[in-house]
Amino acid sequence: MGPRERLQAPCRTRRTDRRGPWPGRPRRARRAGGRDRAPPARPHRRLRLRRRRGGGGVGTRRIYSNTGFEVLAAHLEDATGYDYDDWMEQTVVQGLDLVDLEVAGSPAAGYRGSIRDLLAVGRELLAPTLIPEELWREATGVQFPGLAGILPGYGRQKPNDWGLGFEIRGQKDPHWTGANSSPQTFGHFGQAGSFLWVDPAAGLTAAFLGEKPFGPDHVKIWPGLTDAILERFADRGGTVR
């Protein structure tokens, strides 16, 4: 396994000027004539999102969508006045001391980094420091309970529970986590053949960075790997890579 592999989570290389976990004033662009104005939004992203929107209505079925994460990034830019990459750098990357990241592609996929940084994200999700506990519970709790849908690689699940961006294990079968994973386990796996899961009941987070794209071997191996991790480390808590 190489020192850097593709991740399915947005991150960015560090900057030397550290700021707090939530930026204060947004950057301002200078208007001709000396007046300040807010930095412009990214029209190319908005146009692309409008073209790609579709699917069922809200609350009718569970549809995994990279577009949803791009929409989130656009809303964040509107709310903060920051470019998404800058906001991520100042809040998440610096806040968690992530150091090995390479940014490429959309906010939904394409970022690259090390197992060290991925586990730092896992530790934050296990015991959050950047967001209030109430928001963490909302993000890791089931949204729109009872919705069915397709879990990529594992077929139709009913229900197909998700939180705010995180897939929740619940009672899904088959599943990429272990048979002994708690229903509260949440995380994400990607087509790059990597995963990150957090099991609050066991007090554990684990990460896997693969060298091959997701396929039948991952479907076969991952559940047993997770059960072995839980059996060996669940009493200790912490992180596993």
What are the salient characteristics of this protein?
two-stranded antiparallel sheet, alpha+beta, 241 residues, disordered N terminus, 14% strand, Beta-lactamase, five-stranded mixed beta sheet, 30% helix
Please describe what this structure looks like:
The N terminus is likely disordered. Helices cover about 30% and strands about 15% of the residues. Strand 10, helix 6 and strand 11 form a beta-alpha-beta unit. The strands form four sheets. The chain has a five-stranded mixed beta sheet with strand order 7-8-9-10-11, with helices on both faces. Helix 1 runs antiparallel to helix 2. The termini are close together. It is an alpha+beta fold and about 240 residues long. It has six helices and eleven strands. The chain has a single domain, classed as 3-Layer(aba) Sandwich (Beta-lactamase), CATH 3.40.710.10.
- Assign an overall shape: globular
Main β-sheet: number of strands, strand sense, barrel status?
Answer: 5 strands, mixed
CATH architecture: 3-Layer(aba) Sandwich
Helix/strand order, N-terminal first: EEEHHHEHHEEEEEEHE
Total number of β-strand segments?
Answer: 11
CATH C-level class is: Alpha Beta
Q: Spans with pLDDT under 50 lasting ≥5 residues?
A: 1-44, 46-52
| End-to-end CA span | 12 Å
Number of helices: 6
Whole-angstrom Rg: 19 Å
Strand order of the largest sheet: 7-8-9-10-11
CATH topology: Beta-lactamase
The class by helix and strand makeup works out as alpha+beta
Query: What quaternary form is this?
Result: single chain
Task: Give the name of the CATH superfamily.
Answer: DD-peptidase/beta-lactamase superfamily
The percent of residues in helical segments reads 25-40%
Overall residue-averaged pLDDT value: 80
Portion in strands: 5-15%
Number of domains: 1
